[in-house]
Protein backbone atom coordinates (compact mmCIF):
# COMPACT_ATOMS: atom_id res chain seq x y z
CA UNK A 1 0.00 0.00 0.00
CA UNK A 2 2.90 2.34 0.64
CA UNK A 3 4.66 1.87 -2.74
CA UNK A 4 1.74 3.19 -4.86
CA UNK A 5 1.44 6.13 -2.49
CA UNK A 6 5.11 6.94 -2.92
CA UNK A 7 4.70 6.76 -6.70
CA UNK A 8 1.73 9.13 -6.47
CA UNK A 9 3.77 11.53 -4.35
CA UNK A 10 6.63 11.40 -6.85
CA UNK A 11 4.28 12.16 -9.72
CA UNK A 12 2.73 15.05 -7.81
CA UNK A 13 6.18 16.47 -7.07
CA UNK A 14 7.20 16.08 -10.73
CA UNK A 15 4.08 18.01 -11.76
CA UNK A 16 4.79 20.85 -9.32
CA UNK A 17 8.43 21.10 -10.42
CA UNK A 18 7.36 21.07 -14.07
CA UNK A 19 4.86 23.86 -13.37
CA UNK A 20 7.54 25.93 -11.63
CA UNK A 21 9.86 25.47 -14.61
CA UNK A 22 7.21 26.26 -17.22
CA UNK A 23 5.70 29.22 -15.36
CA UNK A 24 9.18 30.66 -14.91
CA UNK A 25 10.20 30.15 -18.56
CA UNK A 26 6.96 31.03 -20.33
CA UNK A 27 4.71 32.78 -17.85
CA UNK A 28 1.48 31.65 -16.23
CA UNK A 29 -0.91 32.60 -19.02
CA UNK A 30 1.02 30.96 -21.88
CA UNK A 31 1.79 27.72 -20.04
CA UNK A 32 -0.74 24.97 -20.68
CA UNK A 33 -1.59 21.91 -18.63
CA UNK A 34 -0.53 19.86 -21.69
CA UNK A 35 2.95 21.40 -21.54
CA UNK A 36 3.20 20.82 -17.79
CA UNK A 37 2.23 17.18 -18.29
CA UNK A 38 4.85 16.74 -21.02
CA UNK A 39 7.59 18.36 -18.95
CA UNK A 40 6.63 16.24 -15.93
CA UNK A 41 6.61 13.06 -18.03
CA UNK A 42 3.05 12.16 -17.04
CA UNK A 43 -0.31 12.08 -18.78
CA UNK A 44 -2.61 15.08 -18.82
CA UNK A 45 -5.14 12.98 -16.91
CA UNK A 46 -2.55 12.44 -14.15
CA UNK A 47 -2.02 16.21 -13.90
CA UNK A 48 -5.76 16.77 -13.53
CA UNK A 49 -5.99 13.97 -10.96
CA UNK A 50 -3.70 16.04 -8.75
CA UNK A 51 -4.68 19.59 -9.72
CA UNK A 52 -8.01 20.62 -11.16
CA UNK A 53 -6.58 23.73 -12.85
CA UNK A 54 -3.53 25.89 -13.39
CA UNK A 55 -4.83 28.12 -10.61
CA UNK A 56 -4.64 25.18 -8.19
CA UNK A 57 -1.09 24.46 -9.30
CA UNK A 58 -0.16 28.09 -8.76
CA UNK A 59 -1.82 28.00 -5.33
CA UNK A 60 0.39 25.02 -4.46
CA UNK A 61 3.49 27.02 -5.45
CA UNK A 62 2.36 29.94 -3.28
CA UNK A 63 1.71 27.51 -0.43
CA UNK A 64 5.26 26.19 -0.68
CA UNK A 65 6.65 29.72 -0.72
CA UNK A 66 4.58 30.51 2.38
CA UNK A 67 5.73 27.29 4.08
CA UNK A 68 9.38 28.17 3.45
CA UNK A 69 8.89 31.61 4.96
CA UNK A 70 7.10 30.20 8.00
CA UNK A 71 9.66 27.43 8.49
CA UNK A 72 12.16 29.95 9.81
CA UNK A 73 12.40 29.66 13.55
CA UNK A 74 11.32 32.74 15.42
CA UNK A 75 14.18 34.32 17.32
CA UNK A 76 12.93 35.46 20.71
CA UNK A 77 14.30 38.73 22.06
CA UNK A 78 16.65 38.17 24.99
CA UNK A 79 16.78 41.04 27.50
CA UNK A 80 20.30 41.88 28.61
CA UNK A 81 21.95 40.29 25.57
CA UNK A 82 23.76 42.55 23.06
CA UNK A 83 21.35 43.77 20.39
CA UNK A 84 23.89 43.42 17.60
CA UNK A 85 24.51 39.73 18.29
CA UNK A 86 20.80 38.97 18.44
CA UNK A 87 20.04 40.87 15.25
CA UNK A 88 23.03 39.37 13.46
CA UNK A 89 21.58 35.88 13.94
CA UNK A 90 18.18 37.00 12.67
CA UNK A 91 19.74 38.48 9.55
CA UNK A 92 21.90 35.40 8.96
CA UNK A 93 18.76 33.26 9.04
CA UNK A 94 17.06 35.60 6.59
CA UNK A 95 19.99 35.56 4.17
CA UNK A 96 20.12 31.77 4.35
CA UNK A 97 16.53 31.67 3.10
CA UNK A 98 17.21 34.27 0.40
CA UNK A 99 20.21 32.23 -0.81
CA UNK A 100 18.17 29.04 -1.22
CA UNK A 101 17.71 28.32 -4.93
CA UNK A 102 14.40 26.53 -4.44
CA UNK A 103 13.03 29.54 -2.56
CA UNK A 104 14.27 31.91 -5.28
CA UNK A 105 12.65 29.78 -8.01
CA UNK A 106 9.32 29.83 -6.18
CA UNK A 107 9.61 33.57 -5.63
CA UNK A 108 10.35 34.23 -9.33
CA UNK A 109 7.27 32.28 -10.39
CA UNK A 110 5.05 33.98 -7.80
CA UNK A 111 6.26 37.49 -8.64
CA UNK A 112 6.00 37.02 -12.41
CA UNK A 113 2.48 35.62 -12.21
CA UNK A 114 1.17 38.16 -9.72
CA UNK A 115 2.51 41.16 -11.64
CA UNK A 116 0.03 40.33 -14.43
CA UNK A 117 -2.75 39.18 -12.12
CA UNK A 118 -2.44 40.58 -8.56
CA UNK A 119 -5.64 38.86 -7.42
CA UNK A 120 -3.86 35.51 -7.66
CA UNK A 121 -1.68 36.51 -4.71
CA UNK A 122 -4.49 37.96 -2.62
CA UNK A 123 -4.86 34.89 -0.41
CA UNK A 124 -1.10 34.73 0.07
CA UNK A 125 -0.92 38.37 1.15
CA UNK A 126 -3.82 37.90 3.56
CA UNK A 127 -2.16 34.86 5.14
CA UNK A 128 1.15 36.68 5.53
CA UNK A 129 -0.69 39.48 7.29
CA UNK A 130 -2.13 37.02 9.80
CA UNK A 131 1.30 36.13 11.16
CA UNK A 132 3.68 38.73 12.51
CA UNK A 133 7.08 38.26 10.95
CA UNK A 134 9.93 37.23 13.28
CA UNK A 135 11.94 40.43 12.90
CA UNK A 136 8.89 42.61 13.56
CA UNK A 137 8.14 40.66 16.73
CA UNK A 138 11.78 40.96 17.84
CA UNK A 139 11.77 44.75 17.33
CA UNK A 140 8.50 45.07 19.24
CA UNK A 141 9.96 43.14 22.17
CA UNK A 142 13.19 45.17 22.14
CA UNK A 143 11.15 48.38 22.25
CA UNK A 144 9.11 47.09 25.18
CA UNK A 145 12.40 46.42 26.97
CA UNK A 146 13.55 49.99 26.29
CA UNK A 147 16.44 48.91 24.05
CA UNK A 148 15.13 50.51 20.85
CA UNK A 149 13.59 53.94 20.19
CA UNK A 150 9.86 54.25 19.49
CA UNK A 151 9.16 53.47 15.83
CA UNK A 152 6.55 51.42 14.00
CA UNK A 153 8.01 47.87 14.28
CA UNK A 154 6.70 46.89 10.85
CA UNK A 155 8.26 49.99 9.29
CA UNK A 156 11.64 49.34 10.95
CA UNK A 157 11.58 45.66 9.96
CA UNK A 158 10.74 46.62 6.37
CA UNK A 159 13.73 48.97 6.31
CA UNK A 160 16.08 46.25 7.53
CA UNK A 161 14.68 43.69 5.09
CA UNK A 162 15.07 46.24 2.30
CA UNK A 163 18.77 46.62 3.04
CA UNK A 164 19.23 42.85 2.73
CA UNK A 165 17.04 42.35 -0.32
CA UNK A 166 18.77 45.12 -2.27
CA UNK A 167 21.80 42.81 -2.40
CA UNK A 168 20.49 39.30 -1.72
CA UNK A 169 17.08 39.05 -3.40
CA UNK A 170 16.19 41.56 -6.11
CA UNK A 171 19.43 41.24 -8.16
CA UNK A 172 18.98 37.43 -8.12
CA UNK A 173 15.27 37.64 -8.99
CA UNK A 174 15.41 40.34 -11.65
CA UNK A 175 18.88 39.90 -13.18
CA UNK A 176 19.64 36.27 -12.30
CA UNK A 177 22.79 37.25 -10.44
CA UNK A 178 24.47 34.56 -8.30
CA UNK A 179 23.71 34.33 -4.61
CA UNK A 180 26.06 36.19 -2.30
CA UNK A 181 29.34 34.70 -1.15
CA UNK A 182 29.79 34.14 2.58
CA UNK A 183 32.11 37.15 2.71
CA UNK A 184 29.61 39.41 0.93
CA UNK A 185 26.78 38.16 3.15
CA UNK A 186 28.80 39.18 6.19
CA UNK A 187 29.52 42.61 4.68
CA UNK A 188 25.83 43.21 3.91
CA UNK A 189 24.75 42.11 7.39
CA UNK A 190 27.30 44.22 9.28
CA UNK A 191 26.53 47.30 7.18
CA UNK A 192 22.78 46.86 7.74
CA UNK A 193 23.37 46.46 11.47
CA UNK A 194 25.48 49.63 11.57
CA UNK A 195 22.74 51.69 9.96
CA UNK A 196 19.83 50.14 11.83
CA UNK A 197 21.39 50.42 15.30
CA UNK A 198 22.74 53.93 14.66
CA UNK A 199 19.18 54.99 13.88
CA UNK A 200 17.13 53.09 16.46
CA UNK A 201 19.28 51.89 19.38
CA UNK A 202 18.83 53.88 22.58
UniProtKB/TrEMBL annotation:
<dbReference type="InterPro" id="IPR009057">
    <property type="entry name" value="Homeodomain-like_sf"/>
</dbReference>
<feature type="domain" description="HTH tetR-type">
    <location>
        <begin position="9"/>
        <end position="69"/>
    </location>
</feature>
<dbReference type="InterPro" id="IPR001647">
    <property type="entry name" value="HTH_TetR"/>
</dbReference>
<dbReference type="GO" id="GO:0000976">
    <property type="term" value="F:transcription cis-regulatory region binding"/>
</dbReference>
<dbReference type="Pfam" id="PF14246">
    <property type="entry name" value="TetR_C_7"/>
</dbReference>
<keyword id="KW-0238">DNA-binding</keyword>
<dbReference type="InterPro" id="IPR039536">
    <property type="entry name" value="TetR_C_Proteobacteria"/>
</dbReference>
<dbReference type="InterPro" id="IPR050109">
    <property type="entry name" value="HTH-type_TetR-like_transc_reg"/>
</dbReference>
<protein>
    <submittedName>
        <fullName>TetR/AcrR family transcriptional regulator</fullName>
    </submittedName>
</protein>
<dbReference type="GO" id="GO:0003700">
    <property type="term" value="F:DNA-binding transcription factor activity"/>
</dbReference>
<dbReference type="InterPro" id="IPR036271">
    <property type="entry name" value="Tet_transcr_reg_TetR-rel_C_sf"/>
</dbReference>
<feature type="DNA-binding region" description="H-T-H motif">
    <location>
        <begin position="32"/>
        <end position="51"/>
    </location>
</feature>
<dbReference type="InterPro" id="IPR023772">
    <property type="entry name" value="DNA-bd_HTH_TetR-type_CS"/>
</dbReference>
<keyword id="KW-0805">Transcription regulation</keyword>
<dbReference type="Pfam" id="PF00440">
    <property type="entry name" value="TetR_N"/>
</dbReference>
<keyword id="KW-0804">Transcription</keyword>
Amino acid sequence: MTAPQRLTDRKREAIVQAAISEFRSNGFDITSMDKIAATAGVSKRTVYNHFASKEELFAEILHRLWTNICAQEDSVYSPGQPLREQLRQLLRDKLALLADNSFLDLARVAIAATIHSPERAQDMVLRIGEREEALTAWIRAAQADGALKPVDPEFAAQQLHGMLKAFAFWPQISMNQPTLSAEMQSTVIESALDMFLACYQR
